[in-house]
Amino acid sequence: MKFIKSSLPDVLIVEPRVFGDERGYFHESYNERELEKRGLRAHFVQDNHSRSARNVLRGLHYQIRQVQGKLVRVTAGEVYDVVVDLRRSSPTFGKWVATVLSAENRRMCWVPPGFAHGFLVVSDYAEVQYKTTDYWAPQHERCIIWNDPALGIPWPVNGTPALSAKDRAGVPLREAEVFP
After folding, report:
1. pLDDT digits (tens, 9 = 90+) for 123-132
2. Under DSSP, is residue 26 helix (H, G, I), strand (E, B) or coil?
3. What is the set of active-site residues?
């Protein structure tokens, strides 16, 4: 596995080695030992899988308690993936990083605890799978509004994306519960 540092020091892009021939390909989508060699010690307790149509935007989600780290990958289609630092004591508080995750590039993104995560589907549809370090706890789930001008994320969408009621009700970062 190749580990690519992002502009946010704790957010990593993981690129698996792919072995292919005329029959198809093989790659490891998760290897605990390789992650631990890079200092990423995470105990995953839940796997999630979503399928969304073009222009669906999910996020920016996080849990204020039962905080989750996430290892995110796309197994069909392509998304514009965004991670925002919500740790008030961090020098990168309120900063974000974006990357393209796709079935074609097979990259994964490590979203550490204390960060919000979201994505926009830029293909006809996308299937996103991710491992989490804690269980889903809807009572602790929070959402930063996708188009917060303070963040200035340049989502590659024409018009307004398709949003859930929860995502439409997201709050600006200045009003959000964040981490110490």
Report:
1. 999 999 999 9
2. strand
3. 61, 130
